[in-house]
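Subject: Interface between my chains keeps coming out wrong

I've been trying for a while to get a sensible model of this assembly. When I model each chain on its own everything looks fine, but I need the whole thing in one frame so I can look at the contacts. Pasting all components below, labels as-is. Any help appreciated, I'm running out of ideas.
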Amino acid sequence: MSSIGNIVKISGPLVVAEGMRDANMFDVVRVSDRRLIGEIIEMHGDRASIQVYEETAGLGTGQSVESTGEPMSAELGPGLIGSIYDGIQRPLDDIRKVCGNNLARGVEVPSLKRDKKWSFTPTVKAGDKVEEGDVFGTVPETDIVLHKVMVPSGVSGTVKSIKEGEFAVDEIVCVIETEKGDRELTMAQKWPVRRGRPYKKKLSPNMPLVTGQRVVDCLFPIAKGGVAAIPGPFGSGKTVTQHQLAKWAEADIIVYIGCGERGNEMTDVLNEFPELIDPKTGKSLMERTVLIANTSDMPVAAREASVYTGITIAEYYRDMGYSVALMADSTSRWAEALREMSGRLEEMPGDEGYPAYLGSRLAQFYERAGRVVSTGKEGREGALSVIGAVSPPGGDISEPVSQATLRIVKVFWGLDSNLAYQRHFPAINWLTSYSLYADSLAEWYNNNVSADWMNCRARFMQILHEEAELKEIVKLIGMDALSADDRLKMETARSIREDFLHQLAFHEIDTYTSLKKQLFMMKLILGFNDEAADAIKKGADIEAVAELPVREKIGRFKYVEEKNTDEEFGQIQTEISSELDLLLNKEED
Amino acid sequence: MPREYRTIEEAAGPLLLVKDVENVTYGELAEIRLASGEKRRCRVLEIDGTNALVQLFENAAGINLKDSAVVFSGHQMELGVSEDMLGRVFDGLGRPIDDGPEMIPEQRRDVNGLPMNPVARKYPQEFIQTGVSAIDGLNTLVRGQKLPIFSASGLPHAQLAAQIARQAKVLGDNEQFAVVFAAMGITFEESEYFVQSFKETGALDRTVLFINLANDSAIERLATPKMALTAAEYLAFEKGMHVLVILTDITNYADALREVSAARKEVPGRRGYPGYMYTDLASLYERAGRQDGKEGSITMIPILTMPEDDKTHPIPDLTGYITEGQIILSRELYRKGVNPPVDVLPSLSRLKDKGIGKGKTRADHSDTMNQLFSAYARGKDAKELMIVLGEAALTPTDLIYAKFADEFERRYVSQGFDNDRSIEETLAIGWELLRLLPRSELRRIREEYLTQYYDTQD
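Reply #2:
Try treating it as a single job with all components included. I did that and got this:
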């Protein structure tokens, strides 16, 4: 049921209208004859407070507000993959066709393209019983994504008829006879973005989301269905890290939300992704990616909606049984949008002007991640991993958004501006970061990569911690005061930092490292450390050990192509032994 | 005939409350008519029922609640633009203040602009040679980028910005730059420095100036950058010019924003700045860029002075989150006589990776850049250690690094404000410096470049 009211107040993105008694909370409304899109966020009697997702300049009192009677919903169906949407799921390429290079207001375009025909193959036949969540047909959405068309929530019954062939998303492909009469289904369905999509059961994560980024996979892994946060000051590489994860993470579907960030960054993703090849499928990365772009110059209220739009799309693919990874860059901008609306609503502020419900909103969002068994008879297992960037003011994570985020997430990749200044990328600080999944993933790593994996990882962590302590001593009394053993530890730690953790996103080989190669790299560094320790015990000079030519080879191992790693690994191992032997013999002479 | 409202109810700071208005729209431009016949401009900030809250761009002095009248214009704030703007000087609200003739606008544009569709953006990747090694070599500027200068009181940011405006060119391209210069609350002397500098190089004919000096209305500053950017958008995307926009000083702009916010009694964010400052600054900075299918470009160099040299202050902090990098000036280097005193380690150009390399600058650029950064960082660490513990405490390698750091500042960074170095020269100096280090230390450089440039001593 729709109702029409009149504007009585305008303050930035907040519009108050009266005569709205029949509207529901969180209904989508159309404001003025420009038909700007808004959403009701508060009701007082017949006055509704509306956050408007478009620029409100030019609105005046007395202009109409019309409720659509429906909550903000995402349209879900074939055609999502490869699209770029604004915060309220309008395809930006179609908007451009309508109004040119700049974003005009009140543009109405369907979320899913209506003119495209999809090849629909039914998986059930007339007479079959289906319930909500059951797959009734499939569509090859891209070369690598098979779109499973599911029975929408709340529908169950007997298939009366089902078609096969080429259809657009709004054509009826299936009729289901339910208790309440016949229900006609298209390939698309709607879901209100602020509600999580239903599932049967949540499971705990047990498998890593392999990212090809060494510091992540080795030191601070994230599980499939896990949640991680990347806080860091500007210039510390949050966005590059997010892009790297979006490019190389071993997920079936990537949803990337650019929330209040730079326009050029989204352009970069748009240019680059279609040309990058997924190492696993051999297809373009764009064939598994959905982009949501609400850049910082786009209206602030739509920023708040963009994260919900994104996660709803991600949940939809999770329900098909896929492993989905969602990147939100940056959740701080979303929190600021909340703060701005809260201020305009004249709510009592909490910390630093943020509303008191900041923590619970963030928690609700992150809790939509997880590994689940979907609804439907089949019980498909899907996972949704969420990685949120946080932009704390001044890089100080004692601020409310970072703190509220840290209470929820299990993985913390703390970016460090000092590392960034040294151009050590990814600038993830190995001393402050943590992953609470490390233990539960140990079994997987040990079974699937090598029984040595967790052992190597533990030694790496220990050496890095010892280095931090030794550095304190060096600062006070100098390098000379260290024993040869400690000097070697420092050298090994440096090797871990520079040869292993440092990874160049823009280097064609270094940008992605398989787990096998990561293991080789760990083994080379630790192998050299162990053999050198022996040699030092036998009297070798630490300076001479540190300057052995093989160390440069270890350092360059990251640039070795994946197909040559076996051979190169063996060769370097031999060289380590032979060079140390040579050194010892020389000193004995 | 537009209606005159003689119902100004309150005047507080830059804000006026007008009662019993009808058909007023949000953001609309209006005019206050004083009894003396004087007119002042204002803008609608909020409408609540029949009350309109308007924000005055000029001084409130002399406004009498009884005798003054408000007339609403029925449109948003607009700027009349034409190509004749080049070479002209305007005030912060876009009215000519040189002695030239009235402008005949070719079109009128809404000064708020419209956000650029990310799909329609063209990724900036054309290298701009500024002739400054610390920028070209390490924090490369590209066409369509927004790269602010983070300065502080008493540092030579004006000289650096003028040097960039003077020397900037795209290799192998003879198209001319137009410069749009917006002064917000800076002194006459500083503004005059820029004007003189444009005059000396003959660039003044290709420059549009919007001047709001320190003694002009502080609130007018909120409109000044919007005027400048509207002119720049017109020149870039309608007339196909490559426009360099210099905005100075953003700190004064942000303070004006705070003034209005405080007068409205809004809940303040950090340090009293409004919570929407990020969005507000973004709506300025994001107007830089390139568009698909359009010839021109807007490259933006905003200048801001960091209060107390503090990079975490909300103004530099929020700016850094929006712009594509930052050039940071350092007081320590300035004291040492390094000019321009660019602190290269915390400085950053986010777009450099796509603007450098083969066919743009040179194939070895990226590797040498990374190596210079990490070597300088290590050299600085070594020098710090040396101060505490003395030279003897350093390993021989660290001693070399310490020396490298000194040489780097002296030869690479400190080039003076009149020295225009080609990218070849910058890269050559880089290799000269890297040759101070043993070859085995240069792990970030690909073998082929080492062979080509390190091994061939000339």
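Reply #3:
Confirming on my end. The longest helix of chain B spans residues 365-389.
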